[in-house]
Design brief:
This protein is 47% helix and 20% strand. The chain is α/β, with parallel strands linked by helices. Strand 1 and strand 2 form a beta hairpin.
């Protein structure tokens, strides 16, 4: 049996030092990662809080908030849009329903397509569109990065060609609450009749009043 010589005392001491140093560096690395994650979470929370309030569009633009609600058991969906000017005044709102809708993604697409077409019909030519859900928004803004959305994006962008200027924004639930509530009413309260009306619905006026009383700036 071959016996290997024991390392000199000095070499053993150096090995212990190396191991201790490695453990110390590993501990510091994990601590740094923890701090970095905490910093990212804090920044994300600040971003969420900053985007929670509804923000008005620039002068000469209107902002169209789009809301939708899907009842998956019945395969029905409600949709709504609310148009406000640069002072935050609600100019028009509309509500409708869709039947035989198979997925939430389909609801979002149908709602956005309907809202864009509505803005064109009402002759709004400079529009900020705001909708919950970042994937479709990102796909519309940068189609090359989202090939799976190609068909839907081509259809939406073909309608958007008729606008002088437009911008598609991902909106938080808090900032989109008014449109979401109107869309939800079509499904939960079985209000399937479509309509367009001036101003906001009386039953959710407080939501829009609160939007205007909060501090909000141009997105």
């Amino acid at each position: 049996m071959t016996r290997f010589p024991s390392p000199p005392a000095g070499a053993l001491f150096e090995s212990v030092q190396v191991c201790a140093k490695a453990e110390e560096e590993a501990s510091q690395w994990y601590a740094a990662q923890s701090l970095e994650r905490r910093s990212i979470d804090d920044n994300r929370n600040q971003l969420i809080q900053a985007s929670a309030a509804w923000k008005r569009p620039p002068e000469n633009f209107v902002k169209c908030n789009i809301g939708f609600k899907w009842e998956y058991r019945k395969k029905i969906a409600g949709a709504a849009w609310v148009v406000r000017d640069s002072r935050g005044t609600v100019l028009l709102h509309s509500r409708r329903s869709f039947g035989n809708v198979e997925s939430k993604d389909d609801v979002q697409f149908l709602s956005v397509a309907w809202a864009i077409e509505s803005m064109r019909c009402h002759r709004f030519r400079m529009v900020y569109f705001a909708v919950e859900g970042r994937m479709l928004v990102d796909a519309i803004n940068k189609p090359s990065d989202w090939p799976s959305f190609k068909f839907k994006v081509l259809e939406l962008r073909s309608i958007l060609r008729d606008f002088l200027e437009w911008k598609m924004l991902a909106e938080s639930y808090e900032a989109n609450r008014g449109a979401h509530l109107i869309a939800t009413s079509a499904v939960m309260d079985l209000r399937f009749q479509s309509y367009v009306a001036r101003g906001q619905p009386i039953w959710c006026s407080e939501v829009f009043h609160n939007d205007n009383s909060d501090r909000h700036g141009v997105p």
